[in-house]
Design brief:
The complex is a heterodimer of chains A (about 270) and B (about 425). Chain A has about 270 residues and is an alpha/beta fold. Chain A has nine helices and eight strands. Chain A has a single domain, classed as Rossmann fold (3-Layer(aba) Sandwich), CATH 3.40.50.1820. Chain B is built from 16 helices and eleven strands. Classes of the chains: A alpha/beta (about 270), B alpha/beta (about 425). At the A-B interface, helix 6 of A face helix 11 of B.
Amino acid sequence: MAAFSTDAVTTAKGIDAKVRRGGAGQPLVWFHGAGGLAPTEPLLDLLAERYHVHAAEWPGYGEERTEQAIEDMLDFALHGWDLVEAMGLGAATPHLVGHSMGGMIAAEMAALNPRGVARLVLVNSAGLWLDSHPIPDIFAMLPFELAEALFVDAKAGEAAMTGGLDFSDNTALTAFMVNNARRLGTAGKILFPVPNRRLSKRLYRITNPTLLLWGAEDRLIEPKYAEAFAQGLVNADSQVTLVEGAAHMTPYEQPAAAAEAITGFLG
Amino acid sequence: MKFVWFNLMPWPDLPDDFRQEHRSVWVDIDNRLFDPVRANEVYNLYMDQLEFAESVGFDGIGCNEHHQNGYGLMPSPNIIAAGLARRTSKAALCVIGNSIALYNPPIRVAEEFAMLDCISGGRLVAGFPVGTPMDTNFCYGQIPALTRDKYAEAHELIMRAWAEEDVFAFDGKYNQLRYVNCWPKPIQKPHPPIYIPGGGSIETWDFCLDHDYNYSYLSFNGYKGGQAMMDGYWQRQAERGDRDDSPYRASFAQIICVADSDAEAERLYSEHILYFFNRCLHVHPGFADPPGYRTVDTIKAGKLNQLRKEAQQLFQKLTWRDLVDGGFVIAGSPDTVTETMRHMIHTLRVGTVFGLFHMGNMPDHKVRYSTQLFAEKVMPRLQDEWPDHDAERWWAKPLDTRYRPDDGSMADARRPVSINDAGLAAGGA
């Protein structure tokens, strides 16, 4: 397995961020979802066997108190490009891969600058809204409800989300709440109250081949959304791939199947 | 002391099994529980009670803003205050307040508050709450992490709009207005007294002290549960050293029930107070604390939301005895209430009390009975608790000579107009 290391970068705007990197090959930039980077990322481990994987943390998700600098969708998308620039990838054009909220931002980045992207992979991605399939409100969910919405196996999911935290320990609880407030507070700038910042108006600009990789049992952003993305995208090489045995957290629930689909698509 | 009679205006018909059968009294409350025909009676009854409070001598009458809420029927407190402005003449109209981050643009608040101040002859006390997460974020869709920033901008816009005499451009992050020109303006100069209702954020302490506004701690936890927040406020005031410690800087909301005796108070009011705690405070905990609404500093200070899950579990088990012993409710004979109130006033150091007399599904005659006993047998004994401090400093300053719709001129105003009235015919209108 390829070893990952973490280093610090500073964007042109002056925002500090940690970047986790591993593997070798064509650069692949991973954008995490509203839950943040997990201590271990099994899908990234698998992708690093074939690509040079770079995974940065969004403002609000790391130790750096940078979340005030990001207020809206354009701030997020431009910060994404500033991060890619700061990663120092050289002449190679990277693939962008984003999960959930990370997919929403990656898609916006591609719409802004399609020529900066080799191929795009959107995993259970946010960004669209269908009145016929309203996305449940994660901001009003209690932890156990959230786990039920995100994972096929809710019990295992809840344990993964809280990292086995003892909620009767007040210090640990406060730390968890502070983290949660910073992370989801920042995510709320593009996901609250309805996770739609009109990406649909800009989908036509994404000229890159795009893989829509979806957990077949996603109850949060249902597979219907993969179809909606596909209908809006213009590149004929775009495709939808559903992963069985996965809900919204495909990268964590079925990392092997996800890696196979992604490598198959990116080549 | 200043005593304000406050009505939350709860829906009185929540079913007995509300807690079991419904997820929340707020935000996604079952719409079928609302009956507009019944509301005709309820609104008018509640407004009558507010007017009654003035007639028995309360210094102020109060209303507030909630949305999609089974214990608060006032999405627009200004409509209630406008009705009261025309039917009262002495009491301050305490609108505590308008959630200024929710008005688009917030100049609307500057205008409507100015209207209320003009109509009432300068009787407005203006409240500017940040707003609860239920109202602000879940009902009105504001982004939690940006709510405070938007609030601060709205506050700046309103205060400038009241202060400036010339048209100005406002280039805000959330509001861009090329021609700000507040018309009408409030009577009270430089502005009506401003009260900032706090629910538990420590940032509010500094905001009040920065601007010399009244800090109004509004909770349902009563004087014992509110002690820590009020101590924190006074501690902050002392630390900063730039403001004096006048008790009139602070207000506190308290549920109060008065009867002939302590036992009678329990017999009369217990079921209605329990209705409030058991049904009206049944809020889905997921609505109480959306990430980003509370600042990191407030979370670290241990100031968790009063409607969090543990608190809710506590509410539903409370008995009358628990509520009285825990200070949630000050109840009993006039002597008991006077002594307990005196203790509260001094331990919390407050010059203004927002008295909650109508609670839950309390019927009108009990509300008036309790209110009248308080006004006659408690209030007079507590008037001079702070003899060394100016009670008017954060209070409305009405015009000495003002139009009073309820005096003789009103009868005149209702007289049918004749075409022969002076001026009309001669003016050729």
